[in-house]
Every structure is written in C-alpha cells, then in structure tokens.
What does this fold into?
Amino acid sequence: MAGNKVVKSSLMRRNHQKFLSNKLAILGLGIILVLVFLSAFAPLICRYDPVYIDVTQRLQQPSLDHLLGTDNVGRDLFARLLYGGRVSIFIGIVSALASSAVGIILGSVSGYIGGKVDSVILYISEIFMSFPSMILILVLVGFMGQGIMNLIIIFSLIGWPGTHRIVRSRILSLREELFVESCRASGIKGTSIMFNHLLPNALGPVIVGITLSTGGYVLAEAGLSFLGLGVEASVPTWGNIINAARNLRIMQNYPTLWIAPGVAISLFSLGINFLGDGLRDVFDPEQ
Amino acid sequence: MFSTRSSRDEILNNKIVLKVENLQTKFKVGKRTVHAVNDVSFELKKGTMLGIVGESGCGKSVTAHSIIQLLPKAGYISNGTVRYYDNNDREYILSDYDRNSKEIRAVRGEEIAMIFQDPLASLDPVYRIGPQIAENLLEHEKLSKKEAFHRVVSMLAELGFSRPEERYYDYPHNFSGGMKQRVMIAIAMICNPSILIADEPTTALDVTIQAQILSLMKKLQETHNTSTILITHNMGIIAETCDEVAVIYMGRIVEFGTVEQVFNTPLHPYTKALLKSVPVLSSGPREKLAYIPGATPDGSEVFTGCAFEARCEFAIPVCKNKLPVEKTFDKTHRVQCWLYEKGSENG
It folds into this structure.
C-alpha cells in the first residue's frame, strides 16, 4: 500500500523553493538561529556566571579570559549577553505567540459569529489601538510591577488587536466561500468549520505577523528595561545590560559595554525583519 | 448514452423517501420580503431522479436548500413541511428542526447529501482531498482512521480515479474542474446517503465533462439506489437523466410529471417556451432561437394571479386576477394554468 507515502504537493515545494531562493530571508533565519543557539546553550559556552560579582575584575577590557570584558561590578559581559539573550528572546517569542493567540481566538470568534459579538470585540480593539501603547505599557507596569511574566502579560494584552484585525477580515471573506457551505451540507459542526477549515486558511499572514512582532517585543523589552521599567535589574537582559552601561564615563571609555548588547538587539530585529519579509513573499499569492 | 429509465408504473410503486408539502421560503432583505418559494409540494421516490428546472432566480436552488435548511441567515421557512423517510421507514420532519440543531446535522451528509454548482470553490484549498472526504465519514460514522482511509480509497476508485491511494494525498489545486466535481461527489456519496441533491452540478464544467459527470451520477444512483434531486436550467440534461421533472417559475411548481409526460405533451405555456428555447443543431443558418420575452419578475412582487401572465402568449383575463388551481392529467401530470380549467380528470 502506498498509503503511508505522503507526497509533497507542488505548492509546498514551490513555497519552499521561493523561500530558499530569498537570500535575505535565509540570512535572517541564520542570524536568528545563531543567536537562539548561543543563548540556549549559554551554560555550556560561558565560563562565568552572569550575575557573579567580582569587584577585583571590574571594567576589564576584552581579553581571552573575558571575551567582551567585564562591567562596572566585574560581571563577565559575554556571559551576560548570552544569558540576557535567553530572557530577551524568550520574552519576544512568548509575547508574540501569546498576543497572536489572543488575536486569533478573538478574530475567529468575531469573524465567524459576527453581529453584536463582533462589534463589541471590535470596539475594544479600537480602544486599545487608539491609545498610545507606550503610555499604556508604562501605566500597566506601574500597576503590575516589573518581571518577565508581567511583561509578557502586558505585551499580549496590548498586542492582540493587530492579529485580531488580520484574522477577522480573512475569516469574514472566507466565511462566504462555497467550501464552508459544502461543509455545512455534510453536517459538520460550526466550531469545527471555524477552527479546522477557516482558521488554517487565514493563518499565512498571521505567521508573518508573529515573526515580525517577535522583533518588536524584543525591542520593547530592551526599551523598557533600559528605562528601568522592564525586567528587574538583577536579571540579565539585553535592555538591562545597556541600562547598566548608562554612565558617561563608561560610555566614553568602555564602549563594548553598550555596543555589544546594542549590536545583539539590532542583529536580532534585523534578522527577524528579513525572515518576516521572506515569509510574507512566500504567503503572498500575488507574487 | 445513459441507461434506460425505469418505467412510469415502476416509479409510481416506489417508496416515497421525501415528501415536501406547501413549502414556503422567504427572505428578509432589509424591509422587503422576497418570496423565494411559494407553496411547493412534491414527492421523491426511492431510487429515482427528479429534475427541477427553471430560469435563473426562479427558486430552484432555494427549494433544494430548504429541504436541509441550508439557507442564508436572511432566509427562513415560513410555512409547510418537509418529511424524510429513512430506510427503516422512520419519519423525520426536517422543517421542524432548528437550522443548526444536532438533529438536522445528523441528517445532512449522512441521509441527504448535496453537491454544489462550483466544484472549484467547494473544496478547502489547504487540505488534501482524502481527509476532506473522510471528514464527512468520520462525522457520521464511528470508524477508525484506517477504515475511513480504505472507504475513501474505494470510493475514489469507484469514481474512476486511477491510483486512488496516491490521489488521496493530493491537494484540490492538483485536480481539474471535472476531477474536483468527482471529489465533491465522493464527499457527498461517502456516507451512502438515501438522497443526493445536486445543485447545477455541471454548470461550471465543459460539455464533454458534463456528460461524464452525469453518467457517473446516474451510475452511482443505480448501484447505490440513491434518490436524486437534480437542479438545472438545462432541459437536455433533464431529458437524458431524470425520471420525473418539476418546472418551477417564481417559486411555484407550474408543471410536474414524468419526463415523458412533460417533454411529449408539455401543458404549461412556460414549459412549452422553455422547450422551444433549447438550441437545436438542425436549425437553419438564419433561424432565430426562440426566447421567452421579458425577464423573471422581482421576487418581492406579490402576485394575485399567475406570475407568468405578463410573459405568457396565451394569457387570458382571469390569469391576472386569480391564482390558477392545480389540475392533474394522466394520474401524475400536474399543471397550474387557467388554460386547463376545463377538461381535467378530477378538477
């Protein structure tokens, strides 16, 4: 029986090739993979504890011992950078997934059910979108306090309207497709039509959105931590590392302390943007 | 080209599987009410094919969709009953169910299945066709994935797919229009329903594929003893495939009978006009094709008389003011027209 042999469809193969031929997207994917790999295996790569304070070793210039030098309390910068990447990338990815999950669920509900439910959800999303998000984040951080979890919750609370709009408008047009009618003629439940048939058809642009917003959340975390409103200063994140270098003397004399985390943040969001654009090209049927 | 039809007496003796009585379906469009189906009654007998024919917008599709309540939000059944009898003679009053209820969902797909006009848009583009066919099966029958796979593959083989095990894993875009319509038929027939409603199944296909699909449907109908309702505007298709035919105009069945009755002795002027406007190859080069003057009236118009009066060449004064009463000729030949007020058997 040839039943278990799953033949790759020509469309999938074409998308695959389209992605592989996009050099920038591959570069982006490469950058992200390298950064994620370095962060994930930080304990195996670094010799130093990122939070271990060694005052005798403070403000060392880069050397073989300390690859990127040490900061003003003697913590190894390379270790802090890799461990910081863990937290920053984690916050970025989880926030993007969580806010998209909220957006997908609300978007499917308002697109498929429509009517009053749709209007209510749409009004709420408009309120969120019409309010300057940075002020909202600052207020919420003030309420909930700092912390990784709090940051993720706040980001998903504020970030869902974008995904909601994409999913809702896709579902609204898909709902009228004939295959939905033919599912109903087969007696398929409304919820399974919604999640098994409508949602997978709407997912292309959402995947692009998730990718691009990961970069956005990494930047937002860095910005908030730099302002001292993100993650507690004791936890190394890319934003906190820059925050620690916020001192005129350090900025002038020890530039690696802020250039290194800055480069990490820029590389990551650059990679994300390349990757996101590549995915957008793949999912855009008009190209 | 198709196998011979069952004789009329045979049809008369067949068991009734679907009984539609005084069905009325309305649409609320803003403040207007559109009367899409008015007082339609017919019976469908086991193993036969009923053709519903009429112009665009005359209520053919709405009649069929009303049977399993597959109506848009604005549409609703305002009167009448639809009764379905399953193989164990259990009666289901379909028109009493809520349109999203479990009961009607159990009937849809399992007992009464439907094929749509546009096979190109009727399949979900992101799923392989095998699982799409199996979905209907798994919804209604308790089967393992593996059993479902084998049922689907044997269905595909029956429908003339070569290498069905491989085709199972193809996406809809890998198929041509005719093949997609076969996939749609597979979805409809996989649960072995007693009634198949085909809503203009061949309109989107070219003529040679049309013939293939129709003979396939006819074959399936005979092997599975399925009753079929075929909606079309093509008189030729009706003549070739159906046993009985209902001619619909403005949501009313103006003429009903066996195919022989309606085609050999058409009674209603509308039927006559429809039959005349079929293009024939043998017509001369300068001969104009006959057509019915005017267009179908707006559905929100309420007629006190016969809706066809304005376009009818035989119209008499009474047509405008009073609805014609149904007359029956030759046992099964029903017509709603004032021209036959006298001379019917039991009128």
In short: Confidence is low (pLDDT under 50) at residues 1-5 of chain A.
